[in-house]
Amino acid sequence: MKLDGSWVDNQLIVTSIRQLLDVEFNALGYEYITYELKKEYLINKKKVYRLMQEHNLLLGKVIRPTGKREFVKFKRIEATKPLEYLCWDIKYVWVHGERRNYYLLSVIDVYSRKILDWLFQIGPPKQQYSSNRLNQSFSTHKPES
């Protein structure tokens, strides 16, 4: 139902949802979509969730950690030479053409702050594959003795 009281077909609402979702770096859930739709329609989040579920527009479920989490606070690694310490960095990159996230895994030298190797793939990096890439990275960038 529109705000003026006129009835609206569900297909029109689904079209509005698709327009809201057709943006770059899309990470909009059904609650935010409901918030945006309420500017034009009289609709609740249960109906938005149902419509998005029927048309496969929902994002994946968010896994929330349980229990107390401990974070490393103010830890600074002091490297005195290249390849003494290496860091891994995993980023999620939205690929608009495929409408999904890819993983960008980078191996960074702490001393020089240069990326030694990187991996860009669909799923999360596999441990065995990541270990092989790290060994290749070591053979390419030999540490100074």
From TrEMBL:
It holds the Pfam family HTH_21. Residues 9-59 form the HTH-like domain. InterPro entries: HTH-like_dom, RNaseH-like_sf. This is IS3 family transposase. The lineage of its organism: Bacteria, Pseudomonadati, Bacteroidota, Cytophagia, Cytophagales.
